[in-house]
Amino acid sequence: MHAPLHRPLSTVSAGRSVLLRRIRAGQDMEARLSALGFVPGATVEVHRNGCHGPLVVQVKGSRVMLGRGMAENIAVE
Question: Tell me, what DSSP letter sits at residue 18?
Fold first, then answer.
């Protein structure tokens, strides 16, 4: 059996839901994202992900706008 492939949240199309696996960021950023509900095992639903600009996602019942650079550091499957 193959290990699941993790990819950045920034690559997920609008309308898709994914499972958050890990965050690759500094301790302060990880703490901030964790407080917003971005924790391993959480389901993240992507509402908007255009070619440029921020993503709009939903996690733990809240909609959150994330910068593209920040979304690059969130690994999902």
Answer: E
Domain ranges of the chain: 7-76
pTM to 2 decimal places: 0.89
CATH architecture, range 7-76: Roll (2.30)
* Short-list 59, 68, 74, CA closest to 22: 74
pLDDT by 10s per residue, the chain, length 77: 555 689 999 999 999 999 999 999 999 999 999 999 999 999 999 999 998 899 999 999 999 999 999 999 999 99
**Which secondary structure element, helix H or strand E, spans residue 71, and what is its range?**
helix 68-72
Long-range contacts of the stretch 37-41 (C-beta < 8 A, 24+): 37/61, 37/62, 37/64, 38/74
- 18: region left, alpha or beta (phi > 0 left; psi from -120 to 50 alpha): beta
